[in-house]
Amino acid sequence: MTAPTIATTNPTTPPTGERVLCAMSGGVDSSVTAALLKDAGYHVVGAMMRFWPDDKRTDTFDSCCSPDAAYEARRVAEQVGVPFYLLDYREQFQRHIVGPFIEEYAHGRTPNPCVNCNTKVKFDELVKKAKMLGCRYVATGHYVKRVDNGERVEFHRGDDPRKDQTYFLWGTPRDALPYILFPVGELEKPRVREIAEERGLLTARKPESQNICFVPGKVQDFVAEHLPQATGFIREIATGEIVGDHLGTQFYTLGQKRGMGLYQSHKVRHIVHLDPATNTVWVGDYDDCLWSGLRASEANYLCDLAELPQEVEVQVRYRTKPVRATVLRADEHGFELQFHEPQFAVAPGQSAVLYSGPRLLGGGLINDHARHLPAL
């Protein structure tokens, strides 16, 4: 049996009872996803992944993936007329997401937990669960387009440029692509809300979640609860001169220019390097923060390596535009790129995501520069 020819809101040939596990978060996007799939003729099984612990604080997990969101997801499933399951993924979430999030900050890196969640939980653990439940497909409310190109399935940017979420999906196992559906990928957000209103779904006007789901308040406060303060020096990258003090490298990120408490506060300085090994924060001027290229590890490709073009577009943050780059090296472990124009404050730990036009090619985790630091 082959995958459907397209996975949009209007399949040309509706499946005859094909089972699909629909990930429901209690938000409007996944609610409409479930409704559209049922309209298209799929046999839909709704499911929410439980991440919150029994001893959760009252201000944690309240934006999404919370007990309240689970209640709303179950109610929506009733409205749509599909069964609903709450799946326990607390241990996996702690092991794959929360633990590494803290570890990355301890190593002077800036992690993106949403990438890890999609890679190691949603499109790994959830695909396995779908098979156990007799479902051929997994569907989510991501704004991503699935494109069936002959014998292969590709992920392309969603039609709503403000909501495109391909950046978070570069780590999806390639062999899972044929079994993932994105019914809202060809819709814009206002239309998704209109569909929810038309169907009377209780999530139609629910606000969007903008924060990391397991972090209540500021990231710095959350990190401070898990990593002890450790006073150290802030040094000038050009000379090694001590220009300030800090409470721990984990509280800073590359490019930052405020909130450092430098001795000479009239000078504009950016953080250009974090060194937890010596507990040193290095600062410099704007040009010191420019990267001519990057190296990435833990690569995952959604195309054959031989198919990877020499010239690609790379996106180094979710809310930035992709930029042109030349591929200097690429293998199964990682890749090295040369930017066509230098880029400011490319943060180690974030994702370098590769594109060819709208098509998602893969990505990797950004490594730090090999810097020549002044002798201490």
UniProtKB/TrEMBL annotation:
Cellular compartment(s): Cytoplasm
Keyword Metal-binding assigned: no
GO biological processes: tRNA wobble position uridine thiolation
SUPFAM superfamilies, alphabetized: Adenine nucleotide alpha hydrolases-like
Region Interaction with tRNA, annotated ranges: 163-165, 317-318
Residue ranges constituting the tRNA-specific 2-thiouridylase MnmA-like C-terminal domain according to the UniProt record: 292-366
Domain tRNA-specific 2-thiouridylase MnmA-like central span(s) in chain numbering: 220-285
Binding site for ATP: A23, M24, S25, G26, G27, V28, D29, S30, M49, G141
Cellular compartments per GO CC: cytoplasm
Annotated catalysed reactions: S-sulfanyl-L-cysteinyl-[protein] + uridine(34) in tRNA + AH2 + ATP = 2-thiouridine(34) in tRNA + L-cysteinyl-[protein] + A + AMP + diphosphate + H(+)
Keywords tagged on the record: ATP-binding, Cytoplasm, Disulfide bond, Nucleotide-binding, RNA-binding, Transferase, tRNA processing, tRNA-binding
Marked site: Interaction with tRNA: H142, Q350
InterPro entries named in the record: MnmA-like (IPR004506), MnmA-like_C (IPR046885), MnmA-like_central (IPR046884), MnmA-like_central_sf (IPR023382), Rossmann-like_a/b/a_fold (IPR014729)
GO molecular function terms listed in the Swiss-Prot or TrEMBL record: ATP binding; tRNA binding; tRNA-uridine 2-sulfurtransferase activity
Uppermost EC category: transferase
Protein EC: 2.8.1.13
Active site location: C117 (nucleophile), C213 (cysteine persulfide intermediate)
Protein family: Belongs to the MnmA/TRMU family.
Known role: Catalyzes the 2-thiolation of uridine at the wobble position (U34) of tRNA, leading to the formation of s(2)U34.
This protein's name: tRNA-specific 2-thiouridylase MnmA
Organism phylogeny: Bacteria, Thermotogati, Deinococcota, Deinococci, Deinococcales
